[in-house]
Here is the input.
Amino acid sequence: MQTEKIVNFIKRNSRTVAVGTAAAVILVSFGAFALLPHRSPQDIQTEPVHYATAQAEPVGDKAPAPRMLENGTPFSFADLVERVSPAVVSVTADETQTVSQQMDMPDNLPDPFKQFFKQFNQGQPMVQRAVSMGSGFIIDKSGLIVTNNHVIANAKKIKVKLPDGRSFDAKLVGTDPATDVALLRIKSDKPLPTVEFGNDRQLRVGDWVIAVGNPFGLSNTVTAGIVSSIGRDLGGNAQPYTDFIQIDAPINRGNSGGPTFDLNGQVVGMNSMIYSPSGGSVGIGFAIPASTIRQVVAQLQAHGRVARGWLGVQIQSVTPDIAASLGMSQPKGAIVASVVPGSPAAKAGFQQGDVVTAINGKQVEDNQDLTRRVAELMAGKKAAFSVLRDGASKTLDVTIGQRKEDQVASNEGGGAPAGVPAATGQAMGLGLTAVTPDIRRTYNLDDNVQGVLVTKVDPDSDAADKGLQPGDVLLKVGNKTVHTPQEVEKSVAEAHSAGRKSVLLLVSSDGASQFVAVDIGKT
Here is the structure.
């Protein structure tokens, strides 16, 4: 049976800047909608760049720009399509799978034979052949081809077919599941047609784009549309290092890995996913930006893998509420929820509650921006991080580490048990009690979690709106560590007296720490 990769749109507030290996697409549905990678399965169906070399040349002679009407709109894309299509290829990945096949026990089988049948029916192995199809594009006349990782994942054999009918066996140079980029190589006895990377950072919402690929295994198919949005974050852990380009040019199964062109015929993105209730195009597609692809491909070509920088902090974006509680003029930057012991951040002096505002003098927009910027830094190099601590600016010099697969913080936890202790204090619509040894055992709290347990949450409070729930532990109110409900009440009262409309809470939830700004005017 075919299994679709589906991206979970539900996003947790905090993430770990531990940039590196696979950030696999999560197998979770979101209502009736799903984000689906696009490729065409055939036979037995299964689910299955920084690079623009000096040699890269556009196909044929430089064709004129698309003919324009007097009002400036394109008359036809035909010249552009004719020029770039020879470099857009079909990618076929063969995979063999061993599955276990079981039979139903016949009715009225005599007892002496039931045990024998169960032993025999443990699952007979059966080898199946699976073929998946996608698209790709040639970026170097010697035979380098870019496609999506999910098109060729687990493939035993990869074939590439050009629009002129020539077919080649392809070798996998390298792959980066975290960005869903793969690099292939084919050998040809003569130079191959190529396309060039363009500058996706110059794209604006409303610009024309053209998607070329092989939907449903058909030969090159062209669709046109506009850029619907830029800098899309798909949430969760799905490709955390990618700011997607949203386009409305129709994309269907098999378009995965195909290029998205601007009106100059340059690749500004790679078709990767759609947002769809049915698996077909509804006009919401996502392309991986060319700037991301080029950086990844450069590393894949040089090393066969991608190495990313690692800082070692758990972060979240500075929301307007958090900015107000910290007295910041605008909600920019990323706030440090926790620091990994022994990490580059810990060695440089990062502290919980620091707000990272810039890297090497360039402003940090939010947690996603910080994650990607750190990922691009080279391990062993120094970087200057500007942080806001207790209202004062500081600069921390960090020697960047290398992201390893085991440097990923988990947001999973066991949740609160059914038996909730009685509250001994109340503030902000929260019932509160001190963390005692009994409570620590009952809630399976780590020894390093010191704070005040939330026993109940007023559903009409801002705390409830912000997602606080029984079993959470308040670690800090403002910049003060709290151990008793009375300390929480005192800190909230002081915030009231100082004219604050909200307070910033550091909350431990399911083993992960995050900051939450709670309106104290609604309590």
Observations:
- The longest helix spans residues 290-303.
- DSSP finds ten helices and 29 strands in the chain.
- The chain has three domains: 1-32+307-411, 36-101+125-306, 425-519.
- Confidence is low (pLDDT under 50) at residues 1-35, 39-60, 406-418.
